[in-house]
Amino acid sequence: MKDRSETNSLSLTLEIDLLRSFVAIAQAGSLSKAAQRIARTQSALSQQMQRLEAIVDQPLLQRTGRGVVLTSSGERLLGHAQRMLRAHDEAMADMSGRGLTGTIRFGCPDDYAAAFLPHLLREFAVVHPQAFVEVICEPTPRLVAQLARHALDLALMSLPDGVDERNVIRREPLVWIGSPGLDSVLDDPGEPLPLALSDPDTLDHMAACEALARVGRSYRIAYASSNLAGLTALARSGQAFAVMTQTAVPPDLRIVTGDTLPPLPSVGITVKFDRTSPNPLSVAFADHIRQTLALL
What we know:
Largest sheet: 9 strands, mixed
Shape: elongated
CATH architecture of the largest domain: 3-Layer(aba) Sandwich
Number of helices: 11
Strand content: 15-25%
Distance between the termini: 45 Å
Number of domains: 3
CATH topology of the largest domain: D-Maltodextrin-Binding Protein, domain 2
Radius of gyration: 23 Å
């Protein structure tokens, strides 16, 4: 015969609705933002979190002056919750034959497209097979402008250190890349460093110039373009060093360490909408982006 504590533990389950609210709060960093995102009141979310903490018998959230942060138990549960929600949504879409429909215009820089888009689009199509995502690849400044005039529904973009940290999904270090043919240039500090950089108003371009100016190293811009293929081609040819996020570095190019070139900062990755009340398909894709990038 089971004792009472064992019976109670068997009757408690991790309800999908509670987990969905928990993930929304973890991603938003506050109850108020999460409430807006999933159309619930803060009071309702607070009650749900009390229930969830009672079920797992551990504190999951810690309130601060700037919102909420996850406890160590909350961090552990977050990974489980994201996987369970993804499996649940895939099963429901498969069994019901439904899912969201429509078309959204999604902006993404070249380097994030190369690293993340295959995962994002493939897995989103499983849950929402009748939804279509039009992809526009541009540097972050151009994506910001397109969002402002509603030419895009949402965009994945880069943020400098210290900007909108609460909405940063993940951080990616910027790195120098080059080919062995440029080693002689590195060894001669008097020779201007040839660079292949993105557009002048992009974070990687500005970070490279600022880092070299800080250490007094001269340079020349051999190639400037928003096209990632052009930048990597020039780096492969041995004509110039390029700068990009580490996740986008092709396997045949090497990262030049900070021993020979000055270190570069990291950039934050976030999702922005074109309006304060985005459509359900845009919200679903943004949530999918946050969950996917947190696990990659």
